[in-house]
Amino acid sequence: MDKVCRNKKCIIILYLFLQLLITFQNARALGNWYVFGDSLSDNGNIPRLTGVLLPPAPYYQNRFSNGPVWAEDFPRIAHFKFKPSNDYAVGGAFTGPITAKGLNGKANIYNNLENTGWSSFKPFFVTPQLPSFLTEIQSFAINQKKFKPNDLIGIWIGANNFFVAAKQSIAFEKTIFTNNPSYAINAGIEPNLLYRMYFLYMQTKDFNTAIGLLIWSTAQTAVSQTVYGVRELLKLGAKHIIILNLPPIQDTPALIQSGFKAQALASIYVELYNIYLQQMIDSIKNQTKSKILILNTSLMFEKLIGNPKAYGIINTYSEGMKACLNGKPYYSHYLFWDGVHPTAYTQEIIAHFVSKKVKTFYFHK
């Protein structure tokens, strides 16, 4: 009997030793974590690029939240190597260059929402031009040159393109009501697209149908630029890429306050973007056999909104920052800090969600 017990103890000890060995080997195998994107992942890059301390308090250390963002939480949770300069995400980033209304009221090509006439920070700075997702990748290529085979790259991009399209949809309606194309042109609607939208409206007498064409075109451009960026990352040696798809923008406080019409446009854009992104990334994976994983943050946010108590969230539709400034308690457990950005509490939920999904993906041969 004693001999059997000793054998069982030996087996248990051997099992635990092997588990520790596997954990140690996995930890050694983990590479550097890099992230590209917009304000959802920005760890305070605007001051570094402009010299202006934006966003200001009560935002946390120039992040678009009240604490660290998910891109900072994730490597700590998942044990990837990370230094702040590995985060190339910048608030306001578009997927790539797009035409939008400038601070002078005229259309021009921009990489970032914060350089346009719709910047939330005007008139703090006009120059330099802040980057897009594509120019963030170019910055990496200049500074870092290449990824190592065990590095992990994260991408979360695409929301800011919609905010431009939403403004352009309002300008299009003004153009129709006044019979003055300058509203739409100055908002950055390309002449060829404007002609097609106008022709569609004249056929149907339905604004929604014409604006639907604008949203479709915006989603197509955003996904094409995102996928181009993914191809560039692969050329730079990326072997493991995760992409967070778009969350339900229509359920943010800003869109709720904007009304049903704005929410409907956002819902269509998010659905189109996520569908096209999945299709085009699947095509890249089939062509290159690359390890690319799309994470369904849209579904994750729907779960948070549908059953907030299960996640310790007390409010899904108001801004935590306003609650904080008004002296209300428990604001840190709101889903959103401002009109569109998650609180630090939600950011950590996102980081745990990503970490759980990455474990299997990263080590799977």
Write the layout of secondary structure elements.
Layout: H1 2-29, E1 33-37, H2 45-50, H3 70-78, E2 93-101, E3 107-112, H4 133-143, E4 152-156, H5 159-178, H6 182-186, H7 191-204, H8 207-235, E5 240-244, H9 253-258, H10 260-288, E6 291-295, H11 297-306, E7 315-319, H12 320-325, E8 334-336, H13 344-363
Parallel strand pairs: 1-4, 4-5, 5-6, 7-8
Antiparallel strand pairs: 2-3
Helix pairs in contact: 3-13, 5-8, 7-8, 8-10
Structure notes:
The protein has 365 residues and is an alpha/beta fold. It has one domain (31-363): Rossmann fold (3-Layer(aba) Sandwich). It has helices at 2-29, 45-50, 70-78, 133-143, 159-178, 182-186, 191-204, 207-235, 253-258, 260-288, 297-306, 320-325, 344-363, and strands at residues 33-37, 93-101, 107-112, 152-156, 240-244, 291-295, 315-319, 334-336. The strands form three sheets. A four-stranded parallel β-sheet has the order 1-4-5-6, with helices on both faces. Strands 2-3 form a two-stranded antiparallel ribbon. The protein has a two-stranded parallel sheet with strand order 7-8. The radius of gyration is 23 Å and the shape is globular.
For the structure shown, list the relevant keywords:
365 residues, alpha/beta, Rossmann fold, two-stranded antiparallel ribbon
Cα Rg: 23 Å
Write out the CATH superfamily name.
Answer: SGNH hydrolase
The best one-word shape is globular
Strand order of the largest sheet: 1-4-5-6
- Structurally, how many domains make up the residues? 1
Provide the residue-averaged pLDDT. Answer: 92
Number of strands: 8
Largest sheet: 4 strands, parallel
Please state roughly what percent of the residues sit in beta strands, choosing from under 5%, 5-15%, 15-25%, 25-35%, 35-45% or over 45%: 5-15%
How far from one another are the termini?
43 Å
* Category from helices, strands and their pairing: alpha/beta
The helix/strand series, from N terminus to C terminus, equals HEHHEEHEHHHHEHHEHEHEH
Total DSSP helices: 13
How helical, in percent, are the residues? 40-55%
Uncertain segments are 16-28
CATH architecture: 3-Layer(aba) Sandwich
What do we call the CATH topology?
Rossmann fold
Quickly name the level 1 CATH class: Alpha Beta
